[in-house]
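FORM 12-B: Structure-to-Sequence Request
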């Protein structure tokens, strides 16, 4: 007992004897006040912890030599572009060198899938053609270069045709093909294509043969209605349901979604020239992996038919989307305060409230007692 009794002088937690410590009304009020303040600070600290800290930074986007990104005849086949995001294990050349295999891997990691859905409410699918970088579907070059990546042309659904004609869509089916005679000469084109991360042009236009026939008929004085009957339609007004490049950045709006393009020219023959700038954006959410997305900035202008005829080579009326990739990338990072820092701060705040209130109350009580002695 003698060896341990010396430690009593260091005891900071002296135990009061029952009956000696008195509970007062003032002490109860102070305790309730301290508890209320501690509870408010506790809740506010938890609220602040759940707030995300967002940091945006600009960096140079990664770049690769063109002889790696663009396939050539001396390298590997252009058909690798057509895999549509699927893993392609077959080698383009059985005697491929390690450098060529590395190039194929680099190419596979630097592709972007473009999804497009557009409705032409006054244009028959038979007269609609499309191309990518001047490789037309009608000539077979598009399929040759893109393989499995393709678009489908069909009569629009009830919902799609109503949107394209600015009609109410309530209660209309998104799957059922529209049987209204008005949609007989209408066409919805939908599909995706996988391209390398370099600029390009993808177009949907009136076929060259139909455009020439329409021009001749209009020059001879044939009415617009009779021209449509003979050619299957030529007006290229269109409704852009969706155009997406890769994964769209979820915190930004897509200017190429649900857009109606009504060409002002009386013949309905014009070219909607759309310029798209893609900003690579690395999106990092709290406790999740990085995700490569894209933000879109867009501008467009209408090319009139008299200008189309004078161009060399001749441009065709319809929709042309010219896209390019920004050399500057955005890093968007969402984070929270470290949990242990939050926990220590929480304990310090709650404990500090009671200590502070106790010190203040002790000072006030001592001051009151001194004033009584002076009096």
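FORM 12-B RESPONSE
SEQUENCE OUT:
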């Amino acid at each position: 007992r003698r060896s341990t009794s010396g430690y009593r002088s260091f005891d900071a937690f002296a135990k009061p004897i029952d009956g000696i410590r008195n509970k007062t009304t003032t002490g109860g009020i102070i305790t309730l006040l301290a508890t209320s303040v501690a509870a408010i600070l506790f809740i506010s600290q938890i609220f602040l912890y759940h707030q995300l800290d967002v940091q945006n930074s600009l960096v140079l986007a990664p770049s690769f030599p063109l002889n790696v990104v663009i396939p050539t005849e001396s390298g590997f086949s252009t058909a690798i572009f057509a895999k549509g995001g699927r893993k392609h294990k077959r080698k383009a050349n059985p005697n491929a060198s390690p450098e060529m295999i590395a190039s194929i891997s680099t190419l596979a990691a630097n592709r972007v899938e473009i999804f497009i859905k557009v409705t032409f409410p006054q244009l028959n699918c038979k007269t609609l053609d499309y191309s990518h970088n001047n490789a037309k579907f009608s000539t077979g070059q598009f399929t040759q270069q893109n393989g499995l990546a393709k678009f489908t042309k069909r009569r629009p659904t009830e919902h799609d045709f109503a949107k394209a004609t600015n009609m109410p869509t309530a209660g209309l089916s998104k799957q059922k093909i529209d049987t209204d005679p008005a949609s007989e000469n209408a066409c919805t084109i939908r599909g995706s294509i996988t391209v390398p991360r370099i600029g390009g042009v993808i177009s949907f236009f009136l076929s060259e043969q139909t455009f020439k026939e329409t021009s001749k008929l209009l020059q001879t004085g044939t009415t617009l209605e009779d021209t449509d009957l003979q050619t299957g339609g030529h007006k290229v007004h269109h409704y852009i349901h969706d155009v997406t490049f890769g994964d769209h950045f979820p915190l930004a709006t897509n200017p190429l979604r649900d857009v109606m393009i009504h060409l002002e020219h009386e013949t309905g023959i014009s070219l909607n020239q759309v310029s798209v700038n893609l900003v690579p954006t690395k999106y990092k959410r709290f406790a999740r992996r990085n995700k490569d997305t894209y933000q879109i900035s867009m501008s467009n202008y209408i090319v009139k038919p008299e200008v189309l005829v004078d161009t060399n080579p001749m441009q065709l009326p319809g929709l042309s989307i010219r896209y390019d990739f920004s050399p500057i990338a955005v890093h968007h990072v969402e984070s929270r305060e470290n949990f242990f820092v939050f926990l220590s701060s929480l304990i310090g705040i709650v404990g500090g409230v009671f200590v502070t209130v106790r010190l203040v109350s002790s000072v006030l009580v001592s001051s009151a007692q001194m004033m009584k002695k002076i009096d």
